[in-house]
Amino acid sequence: MARPRKPLLSRDRIVAAALALIDAEGLAALSTRRLAAELGVSGPSLYNHFATKEAILDAAADTVIGNVDVSMFGDGRHDWRAALLEWARSYRAALTAHPNIVPFLAVGPGLRPAGLRMADAVFGGMVEAGWPPAQATRIGALMRYFVTGSALGTFAGGFVGDPAAYDPADYPHLGQAHRLADHREQVDAAAFETGLRALVDGLALQFR
Amino acid sequence: MARPRKPLLSRDRIVAAALALIDAEGLAALSTRRLAAELGVSGPSLYNHFATKEAILDAAADTVIGNVDVSMFGDGRHDWRAALLEWARSYRAALTAHPNIVPFLAVGPGLRPAGLRMADAVFGGMVEAGWPPAQATRIGALMRYFVTGSALGTFAGGFVGDPAAYDPADYPHLGQAHRLADHREQVDAAAFETGLRALVDGLALQFR
DNA sequence: GTCTATAAGTGGATAGAC
DNA sequence: GTCTATCCACTTATAGAC
């Protein structure tokens, strides 16, 4: 096939396919060949739209962050505590929708446009609410730590469903740990909510 | 060279070299060939000590977690708040000593022995302090989220030192963001401390 | 703007000699 | 227990035809 009448590819289609592939098979499964095959196209064609594979990943990561709702900052209908709670939940939901890209997204430079827009909104919202700028910066940072950490690693998933795996001689307190394996999502979601509330409550103690 | 009098390799030497290589050049730089070269040995020799490359990474990750101090749990000299604060700081220090392995360590199953010993100690310490088991589990989980998240991603590092990078039209509140690039460690460390205190203070409000 | 062909290289892992 | 030799799948990216 030579040049088709209509372009077969577009940046959006490539990013969507990359995200789907990463979701289905993990970060390591994303190769330019695999991705091109998924799009019904030959490998090198991707380079007409992105300079490198890294650029594709950056675009995919930014798409994920773009799904985070930041409309609660500075709309006058939320106090800073409510805004922080809502934003954190939206942030976590955006990441857990594509968990396999989180390691890339969390390590990367974070200079991507959607990430900056999010940082800008959070910082602006906190300052407007009365936080000193230095504290507003820290709040943005620490919330990022907590949300990315919770989206990255399932805690409950670290335990297997086999009671025999936890010899009381080695792990005296883990006698019931095998039960966690059956409720991974619930355990992780509950831990996130507990931590989120503690964080916001604890910050409120520092306000002013 | 045939079989040497004394083994040239050992699991410990391999793990130490792997960690050094990951520290110096990142996770992606760890290949069996590179690692073997670093040890003055030929590639396949590693397979006499580890079945797969993954097993080497698991051992390296477990070594890092093994450096976390958990002695403050259940020693009678710490209340739960002080124990949590001390543990979290030791945990973060262990991870930031080897930041490049954190993505692997945080995603992985966490079934490794040192990780289980740590989970066991934290859970036991919280239950002993009077927390209900379900809450003790959540505390272990949410602290893991926060610490791994903070060790994984530098927040401040996501900003470049060039003021022109933050056009006020796009990011109305990031006018001073370029200053963060100069103090990455301090900003990240301060955000961690602020979040840690908020977490523990917030949890105290939920106690009983 | 997609194709074919291919460069130029890396990866993990195995077989069998010593 | 380390070696050499080797397999083979797979990688990102480029050159040039159409």
UniProtKB/TrEMBL annotation, chains A, B:
<dbReference type="Pfam" id="PF02909">
    <property type="entry name" value="TetR_C_1"/>
</dbReference>
<keyword id="KW-0805">Transcription regulation</keyword>
<feature type="DNA-binding region" description="H-T-H motif">
    <location>
        <begin position="31"/>
        <end position="50"/>
    </location>
</feature>
<dbReference type="GO" id="GO:0000976">
    <property type="term" value="F:transcription cis-regulatory region binding"/>
</dbReference>
<feature type="domain" description="HTH tetR-type">
    <location>
        <begin position="8"/>
        <end position="68"/>
    </location>
</feature>
<dbReference type="GO" id="GO:0045892">
    <property type="term" value="P:negative regulation of DNA-templated transcription"/>
</dbReference>
<dbReference type="InterPro" id="IPR001647">
    <property type="entry name" value="HTH_TetR"/>
</dbReference>
<protein>
    <submittedName>
        <fullName>Transcriptional regulator, TetR family</fullName>
    </submittedName>
</protein>
<dbReference type="Pfam" id="PF00440">
    <property type="entry name" value="TetR_N"/>
</dbReference>
<dbReference type="GO" id="GO:0046677">
    <property type="term" value="P:response to antibiotic"/>
</dbReference>
<keyword id="KW-0804">Transcription</keyword>
<dbReference type="InterPro" id="IPR004111">
    <property type="entry name" value="Repressor_TetR_C"/>
</dbReference>
<dbReference type="InterPro" id="IPR036271">
    <property type="entry name" value="Tet_transcr_reg_TetR-rel_C_sf"/>
</dbReference>
<keyword id="KW-0678">Repressor</keyword>
<dbReference type="InterPro" id="IPR050109">
    <property type="entry name" value="HTH-type_TetR-like_transc_reg"/>
</dbReference>
<dbReference type="InterPro" id="IPR009057">
    <property type="entry name" value="Homeodomain-like_sf"/>
</dbReference>
<dbReference type="InterPro" id="IPR003012">
    <property type="entry name" value="Tet_transcr_reg_TetR"/>
</dbReference>
<keyword id="KW-0238">DNA-binding</keyword>
<dbReference type="InterPro" id="IPR023772">
    <property type="entry name" value="DNA-bd_HTH_TetR-type_CS"/>
</dbReference>
<dbReference type="GO" id="GO:0003700">
    <property type="term" value="F:DNA-binding transcription factor activity"/>
</dbReference>
